[in-house]
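Late entry, written up from scratch paper. The run itself happened at the end of the previous shift, but nothing got recorded in the book at the time, so transcribing now.
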Amino acid sequence: MNGRHFKGTTQVTKIIFRAQRIKICAWILGIVLVTLAVAYSYPNVYQDDVSKKGFAITMQNPAMVAMLGPGYDEADYFVTVGTQFAHEMLLFTIIAVAVMSILLVGSSTRTDEETGRIEVVRSLPVGRLSYLAASLIVVAIANFLITLFCSIGLYLLNIDGITLQSALLYGGILGVGGLFFGIITALFAQVSPTSRGTTGLSFGVLVVAYLVRAFGDVTSETIAFASPLGWLVRTDVFINNNWWPILLTTLFSVIISFFAFYLNSIRDIDAGFLPSMKGKTHASKFLMTVFGLAFRLQKVKMLSWGVGIFALSASFGAVLGDLETYFSEMEFLQLFFNEQSKVSMTDNFISLLMAIMSLIVAIPVTMTILKLKSEETHNRTENFFSRVISRNHVLSSYTLLAVLESIYLQFLLAIGLWVASSVSLQVAMKSSFIYLPALWLMISLSVMLYGAVPKIMNLIWIYVAFCFIVIYLSEMLNFPLWLRNVSAFESIPNLPAAGMSWSAIIVEFILTIAFSLIGFVSYNRRDLKG
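Output as recorded:
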């Protein structure tokens, strides 16, 4: 590798940034606004010492440590509200920035290679490594802007205990964490021969990093250090402000990026270092159907998400026993929660876990409908319509696949919790399957957007993000009831912590049917895009 391999990087950077500018702005705006809004609300959440002590002890229980990472010393929660904010928000925000980086790099490397954009750019006087370098520069700029805006915003909020140094450290954690996973994606873009494989492997690393950190945080800190997320949650931000995790993550990012550039320099375009699996010579009768082909194209994704959902559910199920033991040994917590609620801590945790995990399941089932949009954009649906196949047949096949996928993933979610904890199978199934109406409503929204206005179909991800904010932060941000009810997941009964209510379920079924009908009718009336 030498200078001529990077010739034209500046021009290519401008091309990629122009193509990704809307996505980048949307991600930055969403992450920064949520971060600052939550930070602004924290001083009004825990105002007295009793609530702070309850928060501190609650966050030290094994289940919350596994979900959110290791906390601070109990005394630190009384020093500054920043500790409470960081403990609840830091890890999930790192993951959000990592997802942004994975999608941006995956789109500007392997996806652009599959669609022929890189080949067109390479026909110009540019270096062999210029496109990869430009992709990493773009994602680095996006992460830097998140670092800058979050740091300045946190400092300007003038919250007691949040200094300029600690605000810069918090923002730096987000930026470095996002860049690390962006570089991981650049590496897999050289290894995998497909864009789906690239993003799949990258998200796999993110999930494994989370699970390793969760297991290590609960059992052994040495194990947690095997995960980059385990490094970044140990900065002790707003208290001791340790910068070594950022330096360590940066060092590994540089090493991995060199490896990615080397692999890119020795491989052919459209090739990968992982061999492509050879298919059968003749297709089966099932594969020759619309549903069979859709299933075949989504099979690897469904398997990967199934493994991930089961592993996450089982990991949290494994610490439920420790949670109940921890609660029984803490007299203060018993008094505190008895005043707040008659529901056990375990039931509350299961309800929160199932809500968050079900919202995660909404991602792959929504991607199934988005896959049909991609097929149409690339003119591949014309292969269906050149035969005696109706539009309703095509759309209903993908919709049915998404519905079956939601049932399959919710089943694995329940089984994962059941096999790893003392929760009964009946409770696990009920608390998991109760969210199926919300998932089906998400599918119907996707169908409606695809059928009526496919150009703005990606806005469904904004709604998914909104649903997560409602589940995790609505009480903290004092959302009015009408706004919370906009979320498909908010009105679902929180089993087993709450009782069963059928009214909201019936309403969501009616909305699901209505949105689906609008989608099917609109799809039959509009022109195909390509």
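The chain has two domains: 11-271, 285-530.
(Scratch paper discarded after transcription.)
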